[in-house]
Design a protein that fits this description.
Helix content: 10-25%
Mean pLDDT: 92
Low-confidence stretches: none
Structural class: alpha+beta
Oligomer: single chain
Number of helices: 1
Radius of gyration: 13 Å
Largest sheet: 4 strands, mixed
Number of domains: 1
Length: 84
């Protein structure tokens, strides 16, 4: 499963182009992580391939619990991704 860390310098490519390429390759899950240091926050989004497009499966912002059971069990608060 690809995990895309969105970069401010390639935001459009990371949010639009790369998921489209992964979907075209038939990759069943795609995760996007955005860490916004100047706002001191983070968010995580998991998408599942349905047909030819990704559909949201789970998401969480810092301070919330990101929980999934597929493609594997995982649970954490995105705030853990920020540097102490």
């Amino acid at each position: 499963m690809p995990v895309e860390l969105v970069s401010p310098s390639s935001r459009r490519r990371d949010r639009l182009d790369k998921p489209t390429l992964a979907a075209a390759a038939g990759i069943p899950y795609y995760m996007r992580v955005e860490i916004m240091r100047r706002l001191n926050t983070a968010e995580v989004h998991l998408y599942e391939l349905k047909g030819t497009e990704y559909r949201p499966l789970a998401s969480a912002m810092a301070g919330e619990s990101f929980r999934i059971e597929r493609p594997f069990a995982l649970s954490f608060d995105p705030i853990e991704l920020l540097e102490p």
